[in-house]
Amino acid sequence: MSVKRxxxxxxxxxxxxxxxxxxxxxxxxxxxxxxxxxxxxxxLAEQCAEFKPAIAVVAxxxxxxxxxxxxxxxxxxxxxxxxxxxxxxxxxDSGCDTVMAAIVGAAGLAPTLAAARAGKRVLLANxxxxxxxxxxFMQAMLAGGGELxxxxxxxxxxxxxxxxxxxxxxxxxHGVEELWLTASGGPxxxxxxxxxxxxxxxxxxxxxxWVMGRKISVDSATMMNKGLEVIEAFWLFGLPLEKIKxxxxxxxxxxxxxxxxxxxxxxxxxxxxxxxxIAYGLAYPERINAGVAPLDLTQLAMLSFxxxxxxxxxxxxxxxxxxxxxxxxxxxxxxxxxxxxxAFLDMGLPYLxxxxxxxxxxxxxxxxPATSIEQILAVDTAARLAAQNYIRDLRH
Length: 396
Ligand SMILES: NC(=O)C1=CN([C@@H]2O[C@H](COP(=O)(O)OP(=O)(O)OC[C@H]3O[C@@H](n4cnc5c(N)ncnc54)[C@H](OP(=O)(O)O)[C@@H]3O)[C@@H](O)[C@H]2O)C=CC1
Ligand SMILES: CC(=O)[C@@H](O)[C@H](O)COP(=O)(O)O
Ligand SMILES: [Mn+2]
Known about the structure:
EC number: 1.1.1.267
InterPro entries: DXP_reductoisomerase (IPR003821), DXP_reductoisomerase_C (IPR013644), DXP_reductoisomerase_N (IPR013512), DXPR_C (IPR026877), DXPR_C_sf (IPR036169), NAD(P)-bd_dom_sf (IPR036291)
Keywords: Isomerase, Isoprene biosynthesis, Magnesium, Manganese, Metal-binding, NADP, Oxidoreductase
Bound molecules: NADPH dihydro-nicotinamide-adenine-dinucleotide phosphate, 1-deoxy-D-xylulose-5-phosphate, manganese (II) ion
Largest sheet: 7 strands, parallel
Number of helices: 15
Pathway: Isoprenoid biosynthesis; isopentenyl diphosphate biosynthesis via DXP pathway; isopentenyl diphosphate from 1-deoxy-D-xylulose 5-phosphate: step 1/6
Strand content: 5-15%
Family: Belongs to the DXR family.
Radius of gyration: 20 Å
Number of domains: 3
Distance between the termini: 62 Å
Low-confidence stretches: none
Number of strands: 11
């Protein structure tokens, strides 16, 4: 068994720490060669002390100075770099063969793309990168000759329910009729929109089943997360949009399903614990112990499935329409959502205005065919600016 050399983009976050937990249990299989963070320097220093990567990356020079000092005190020889370009070094200069892409948001696009181009095994948690750049990212993956394994729990479930290697095949191959993405419905599943006017960030981040970072937790509450996941599934699995369905499944035990032509429906089930898809991606095609408790079906009262009401979840409706519009519309959707969620979390933007911001920006900026990464990044910047301006106007 050869040891896999792993770079973790976003090692201080929820996915990053779960990845390190799986790796910690299998030192004979995995060697961490690069770790990256933005603000959590102490946590990164502890991770460096334990896993001794060749490279550690932080967001800015001040963070790098602090980290270097901490590592010096521990007599560690990890090279400390900073900034957006250094994230690419963590992928291309660390000698890794596997990259866990777990930076949240658009900041993850450039290093994840670098991993795709360099032919790495890409463990894709960062859905925003694929939503922003869909076709171009998949083309980069293909050209690089690496391997793309979905880590997002629904996509990992679908991957497990499809014949080996089925990603982005033409419609109808292997008898696949539909993909069913399950959604918990988030903390406000049973509330009407009118009841959500004074929702706080703490309430929105209190996901009923999963422990995750703040941005994705808010996306789960608005169901923008599921909208992003529909677009993610479209690019990963190559089925037409109308064959990708969403089902509210409050128990989060069935992580998604594939319906086949012959009447079979294959589901992947498990505890709501990201260590399962992470371990699957790290060891693929082998199966290793993820440290997750076995699922006891006798302890489950029931499993239920219903269709979502898009009036109750306007962000889901906006994502469906951006997905249908195609081109740069998902880039615009994602950028506006990132700005709106950050404003909700940190600047007091009312919860119900998250969808208003996204709708306004989608109406304001025309979508166009996506032609290059440079164009995608320019559209992302323009949509962020439009969202910021709209939020500023709302506040005055
Ligand atoms: N959490 C989950 O269970 C799931 C997450 N995902 C996806 O995985 C990704 C990560 O999610 P999650 O782990 O929850 O997020 P977290 O917020 O917990 O972690 C985000 C990580 O990204 C780093 N980071 C944030 N901003 C930047 C930046 N501008 N430049 C470089 N690094 C940055 C953070 O550094 P620091 O902490 O040091 O500031 C942290 O390491 C998201 O795209 C999410 O949608 C998908 C499915 C499930
Ligand atoms: C764990 C994971 O993959 C998240 O994306 C999760 O799906 C969020 O839960 P929701 O189904 O509430 O969006
Ligand atoms: Mn998911």
